[in-house]
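Why do we care about 3D structure at all? Because function follows from shape, and shape follows, mostly, from sequence. That is the central idea of this module. The next example makes it concrete: a single protein chain, its amino acid sequence, and then its structure expressed as tokens.
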Amino acid sequence: MALPGLLYRIYQRRLRASIPPKRVPRHVAVMIDGNRRWARASGSHVSSGHQAGADKIPEFLGWCEELGVDVVTIWMLSTDNLSRPPEELEPLLTIIERIIDELAASGRYRIHPVGASDLLPQSVARRLKEAMERTATVSGMLVNVAVGYGGRQELADAVRSLLLEQASRGMTLEELAEVLDVEHIAEHLYTKGQPDPDLVIRTSGEQRMSGFLLWQSAHSEFYFCEALWPDFRKVDFLRAIRAYAARSRRYGL
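And the structure:
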């Protein structure tokens, strides 16, 4: 084995050993940013960057499994991305469909779509629904695939769903206003019933949330990594987990 590879493996093992098992986050969310920049830097078509980013996802999920993470949320496509030119969007949607099929076929993950399915092309929405149904009984890690996701859209959908639900029960707006609390809205989020993310990772050096999990990340810890998503390594992941484990979570207090 070449010396650089040996040193990398030693460092990787040390990082892993430095993470207390009880400090591993239960829910990790990741914003997979940098695919387009990676493609430009390598002189490739942008779709090559999206494919490289998709190829990284199973590897990332494997790292999460090794640490015992229960829930992973991966932001693959935002509502804003849906306005990209067709020559970029259509290949990207095809890549997303393929990786969803691959994850479902592995039998290792319970797939849960997160996003506004009504904004997606019918074929993509159908693929997501089928993946969820195929993996509904899988006992492995829960993987939220955020496709056509926007934080503001999620909140609007949650409020709309809540209003329709209560109207079907005969409740007036005035009656709802008197009893409405945060739990009523939480019950209508795309991630209802799940723990909120403990750690949110964003790659590519950008330090903003861009509307990702606006409600759920109120008390999350954030980690921003310089690596572009296709270049994100296991040591980068372990550094993020180590940084999380070293923090004292205050939950807004």
